[in-house]
Amino acid sequence: MKLFTRYNRVNIGATIVVFVLGSIAFYFVLHYVLIKQLNDTLRSEQQEIVEYVQEHGQLPEIQNTRHQWITEAPTTDTIPRKPHIKSIIAYNQREQEQESVRQLVFLLKVGPQYYIIAVNKSEAETEDLLQFIILVTVGMIALILLFNYIINRKLVSRLWQPFYTTIDSIKDYHPSIREPLQLSRGPIDELALLNDSLNQMTAHIYHDYQALKSFTENASHEMQTPLAVIRSKVEVLLQDTEGKQQSMQQLLAIEDATQKLSMLNRSLLLLTKLENRQFQLNEPVNLKKIFENRLEERQHLIESKQLRVTITGESPVIFFHEHLAEILVNNLLNNAIRYTPVTGEILIELNKDNLVVSNTASGGSLDTTKVFRRFYKASDEPQEGTGLGLAIIKEICNAAGFISSYQFSDGCHIFNIHFKS
User: Fold this and answer.
1) Local confidence pLDDT in tens for the 421 residues of the chain
2) How far is CA 84 from CA 46, 51, 107, 115, 399, in A?
3) What are the backbone angles phi and psi of residue 51, rounded to the nearest 5°?
4) Domain range holding 386?
């Protein structure tokens, strides 16, 4: 969820809750004020009647209206009582209907006779006024919410635009393909601080990356030279010690270790380049053709182990990198041929979405959590290779956006590469 959407939800939700609670409170306060005003009007009428009786000794002539009327009735009750006010439903003769009224009842002595006086005032006007005020208030709240949403949407979107621009710049940044970021400061202090920090951070990353890249390339180059010297010297010694079995075996062991060290050096350099995204993956590559060429190169080894190799499916052309595709195919075939027992079978299936290489297993399943780790080897595997072949496959897939996976089924190791992430 975007920050702006989250902010809008929280802001609008909180505003609605506050307005609803405020409207309810406003309704009760307004209702209390209007009822109090009615009560004051009723008490004023009572005071006028009492003063008239005290002055004239008789009840005043009653002038009823459609919203206020007074009733009096003789009573034998002579016990003084406190006037009380209440809301009741009464019949309005003028309107000829039942309606809610506010009624004040009090006992009044006129001469020797006691009367119960009831002053009634209709609450219709009060209710109408209350409804009108509430409707106006709700309408104003709705308008405020609408304008608040529109203003927030326009204003906040504009305020956050530099932030999204910064995010897009960070998303597209990689030290292998561009210089350090040069983000503008802008008028907002927080975003200016963020951009300054990102500029400094990417500058450090770029310089560290260049230093690491230079070190890796130089180290790889410098290591190749002594390795080449060692191999050449070993070859000379092998010629000089021809016929000396013990010396020959030791020199062959040195030759083998040197060869493995050279392979390891090249593999680690390749992994570093893959991690640093130093390859442009934009060349059309025919994987089936590469498989056929590499199988032809390994035909003697395949025949010596009496392996059955089958290629099925289409000839997919994907946008990739020719050299990386060859490394991917080489490592898959080397892994399959090396760990398939004699008279075993290798099946290669190709289509526009997937590449599946399966081979007969000499043992059980590999550890699915470690199979693509560097230097991982199953305990029952012969100790050959550098232990980096599957790790290189994984890094190539990561660089290209492919999905690599392993499973063990029906006595076969199955490696699947899905081209569409």
Assistant:
1) 566 667 677 777 887 888 888 888 888 888 888 888 888 888 888 888 888 888 888 888 877 777 788 888 888 877 767 888 888 887 777 777 788 888 888 888 888 888 888 888 888 777 888 888 888 888 888 888 788 778 777 777 777 778 778 888 877 777 666 677 777 777 777 778 888 888 888 888 777 777 767 766 666 666 666 767 777 777 777 676 665 666 666 666 676 666 666 666 666 666 666 666 666 667 788 888 888 888 888 888 888 989 999 988 887 788 887 888 888 888 899 888 888 889 899 999 988 888 899 999 887 888 788 888 877 766 555 556 566 778 888 888 887 888 889 998 888 999 998 987 5
2) 11, 19, 10, 15, 88
3) -65, -35
4) 283-418
Q: Which of 101, 136, 171 is the last residue of a domain?
A: 136
Q: How many domains does the chain have?
A: 3
CA distance 324 to 193: 41
Domain match, 126 and 19 both = yes
Last residue of a domain, one of 136, 161, 176: 136
Residues 290, 247 share a domain: no
The rounded distance, in Å, linking the Cα atoms of 279 and 396 is 10
Residue 163 lies in a domain: no
